[in-house]
Amino acid sequence: MATILVTGASRGIGLELACQHAEAGDSVIATCRDPDTANALNHLSQSFDNVEVEALDVVDPLTILSLASLISKRGDKVDILYSNAGMAVAEAFGEWTADAFSATLETNVVGCAMILQGFAKVMAQGGKIVNVSSKMGSFEFMGNLAGELTSYAVSKSALNMLVRQSAPSLKSQGVLSVALSPGWVKTDMGGQEADLTVTESVEAIRKTVSELSLEDAGKFIDYTGEEIPW
Ligand code: NDP
User: What residues form the membrane-spanning segments (predicted)?
Assistant: First the structure.
């Protein structure tokens, strides 16, 4: 039985990752900002003994340190860390705000950096870190597209660089880290027009992650395992 840690497990892709790993019999540490209001996640933990709900806000380093220390004190190791929590704000050029850029970068970049660093020491040998990125972070894919999700696209490009910068150190500890796009998924963030259901995306992500090895460290891939150009 593997130990799985998920950030942003209150809804969307994070909740489905927790569900599918729970059903597979893994030991799931499902984290969310506010366990008191995470009804779907609490329901999951009531249905499965192998799901533990813990408070973790990726922009609050103390919550990261406190959970990493709890895991360490128990002598547990994490086999798969899904750094999934993220946010997006739509603003057209001309309407950009410093608040939206700051909040998006703080959550999607600074938060993910602190998650990577904070949990590195509790990762198992052969453990895998999946940093949930987006094709919108790809210069090649976005080309000259001008959308309303610039702060988000910038944050995912920066996340990709973060993965490249940290993957070699993690690899030397025997830990794989990749940037992975889940596809366009029907969630609060993706909207109902999206291509994939959360079930489809997460089934594909789990299969892809199970097939990754240390050789793949630092890659930018999609949910099917195909490499995405930077
Ligand atoms: P949702 O908006 O449905 O869920 C976002 C999750 O992130 C929620 O659980 C939310 O918690 C959590 N979250 C946000 N900020 C924080 C924080 N500071 N600390 C802890 N948790 C936080 O999004 P998705 O499920 O669609 O997205 C999950 C990941 O997938 C994101 O990284 C996103 O960028 C990425 N992605 C999604 C795509 C899609 O089409 N859906 C496409 C490409 C990438 P709370 O309930 O407390 O707000």
Answer: none
